[in-house]
Amino acid sequence: MNDHGLRYFDDYAPGATYECGSVSVEEANIIAFAKEFDPQPFHVDPVAAAAGPFGGLIASGWQTTSMMMRLLVERFVSPESGLGAAGVDEIRWPKPVRPGDTLHVRASVLEARRSKSKPDRGIVRSLAEVTNQHDETVLRMTAINFVLLRNPDG
Hints:
The chain is about 25% helix and about 35% strand. A 5-stranded antiparallel beta sheet has the order 1-3-4-5-2, covered by helices on one side. A hairpin with a 6-residue loop joins strand 3 and strand 4. The longest helix is centred in the middle third of the chain and has 15 residues. The two termini are about 30 Å apart.
């Protein structure tokens, strides 16, 4: 359920920052996600992971991205006006996510401009950042979304 209220293109002002909540990461969830979508040893096997390049089990970056997306949809992307995304310019996972981490999601509007070809919408470029409980960045992503204007004729 979306709990941020009704939001349109006009409400996404450049420089605005939105706190989007947090999520805790559990070992069982890391393993279950990885077994289905990213079955590398350091995601699915705690014993192999301990001897691997990260010194222990870590979440797939795609799982971290999925957890972030859930919170963005709940607290940043408005279902009333969101028209989907054109894509992602960049995504980075600078630190691994480990079992027991608590992740915090923040979205910042970098740019908001009206569409030249479709006057009922605008294009919002945002930076999504995920930090762990130590305030270390574990994910950074720049996304481009299409968003309806509140009143395209006004």
